Model the fold of this input.
Amino acid sequence: MVYRPGRVLSNRAAVIGMNRPTMEDVAERARVSRALVSLVMNDSPQVSDEKRRSVLQAARELGYRPNLIARILAQQRTHTIGVLVDDLRNPFFGEVVDGIEAEAADHGFRVLILNGHRDARREAEAVETFLQLRVEGMALVGARLDDSDTARVGLAAPCVMVASGAVHTGVDTVGTDDRRGAELAVEHLAALGHTRIVHLDGGTNVSAGERRSGYESGMRSAGLGDLVDIRPAGDDEADALEVIDELLADDDPPTALFAFNDLLAAGALNRLADAGMAVPGDVSLVGFDNTFISALRHLSLTTVNQPTLAMGRLVVATLLQRLSDGPSEPIRHTLQPELVVRSTTGPPRGGANTVAGTAKTAMR
Amino acid sequence: MVYRPGRVLSNRAAVIGMNRPTMEDVAERARVSRALVSLVMNDSPQVSDEKRRSVLQAARELGYRPNLIARILAQQRTHTIGVLVDDLRNPFFGEVVDGIEAEAADHGFRVLILNGHRDARREAEAVETFLQLRVEGMALVGARLDDSDTARVGLAAPCVMVASGAVHTGVDTVGTDDRRGAELAVEHLAALGHTRIVHLDGGTNVSAGERRSGYESGMRSAGLGDLVDIRPAGDDEADALEVIDELLADDDPPTALFAFNDLLAAGALNRLADAGMAVPGDVSLVGFDNTFISALRHLSLTTVNQPTLAMGRLVVATLLQRLSDGPSEPIRHTLQPELVVRSTTGPPRGGANTVAGTAKTAMR
DNA sequence: ATAAACCATTAGAGCGCTCTAATACAATGC
DNA sequence: GCATTGTATTAGAGCGCTCTAATGGTTTAT
Done:
């Protein structure tokens, strides 16, 4: 409870917050052994009420607070899961983390969060930090690490990739069927009568590959294989600006867009409004993730839902399973996405099947 | 690098990730002392190139990874700052954290993030965890802890409250002048000719008090002191529903709303649209925080900007100062907010001072 | 040649805790 | 009364590292 700057002796321990009363101090004050204090602190049933009381009192009087670092070192367990989040500003990840935290808490695990800042290098550093802190497992949420990175990591500690596409072959994964999600989006647009459907690609984001191929297969099933048109964009609102400008400059602009995620879609919506294009009047737009922003009435974005909370919980379950089973075949959990139809999609202007232009079927 | 399940001996160390090669192992393999390995790992200049090379090679071959836990215990320094975030899903906090991380990295500090889930009890737990982990300082971003909590914490470790109003008298704080921000909002609305300006209050959120009193003083300066009208709402989109319904049921509904934050404003926007009210035609609306959602063209929310990145950086600077100076008078940094006028504010229907009419004009 | 100064290396204590095994002591059974 | 069982307590090693002080070896100054 007390801070006691006066007690600072060596400059090694000069740092505030270290240099606090230890178990030894409590033991001395309560006139018992250090071991007994340890038992009390861990709620052991084999301590007499009398001693328990006096230990607790001594602890209170000294403002004793167990040193987790020392405890971890001694018991060789951290009871901690590291969660690497690709981008703290994307609400989608926040929701997944909520699920992870809930499930982790249920199993007595602490969760440590590190921010990847949408940068593979920084993510690798974060993972290294987790490893050095000896987390018992980690969840990489939307991480951009490639297979060689994760292979190395996977050998050092159990590790689950979340919402990171299906690229990773050697690691446990939890995710939505991104491919199917993209197909749902395309099917929906095709059913409305769109043919010139362009995909705004997620770039380096790990789920991008799957969604792209889902888009392609969706287009093919709809008989639009020839019209596949993929434009590199990104995963942030800002990333939409250029692509949209480029698309609108076309002689024969698309009537529908399928964006990598909601943020990108929101950016697209912005730019389309700038250009005076009506949505869905002139262009239909579908996002991905079903984050709260897509639900905002004024965006009312048609999008693909991912069951974020369930994913988060499943991550921890997977981690725990791996922890108890030891190494084996990679576990993969693939949850089903759902199309959420809102107000940014509708039939193309002039009704269905008005053949969209002549040539212009370039793939990027 | 290697995982070696076979090496698991006692079940104490059965946990994957612990039970890895230690400095001792490296020393043995490189045929030097443990102390030398330590020097190499810390880039000491007083090691011969020859030894350095062989140590590094041995470390590589064994897949050695320093145990941060042991190192921290030994050197009695964690080099870590704990960051408690009130709500990971609110992008405002994510932006502040970005600033914190940037500045912390510049000074060789690690950042640990814990989630408060908008709940004072869970926040207190998180703080306790930080303390037990012996973080060297912590930033409580938007935390809901009260003065007695923070007083206790402040004694145990340096601690900066960020974006938490000016309620906390004994602790260092970094924040925006919430009061002034609210005044700016009210001044803007009053200048447009609004008189029936209602404040949607932030409830338990810590900045709520300041913004409320800023609203009040703004109203008074505008000669609208008699029309002060504060409705408890919250800080999330969902929290807006009821209040808006209640307000619209009024005989004489307000012509302008000043919401506690952008999320609440977004929720209000939703509900107003449901009710067929035009914004800003029938009702003007101002938010707070200038998160990216307010910038989305389709919301285009007039709001009050907080310099999030600067705040984040300032937090770390403050923490470091406190760390080197020891206890003294609380440091308070108050940054200036700015009004960002977008499209949700305009003159009241029928020009100034005309009581909000009956005819509802739908937006979109 | 001897002392002084310097350098690379190491021994070993210590960080604050946990946990096993040992100990002391009371209660029980025969 | 003595072994037996059980319960409450403690001694002490150990977790993986850092850091001070000591060591041995080489170079430089005297």
Summary: The radius of gyration of chain B is 27 Å. Residues 12-13, 18, 22-24, 34-35, 38, 41-42, 66-76 of chain B lie near DNA strand D (CB under 10 Å from a C1').
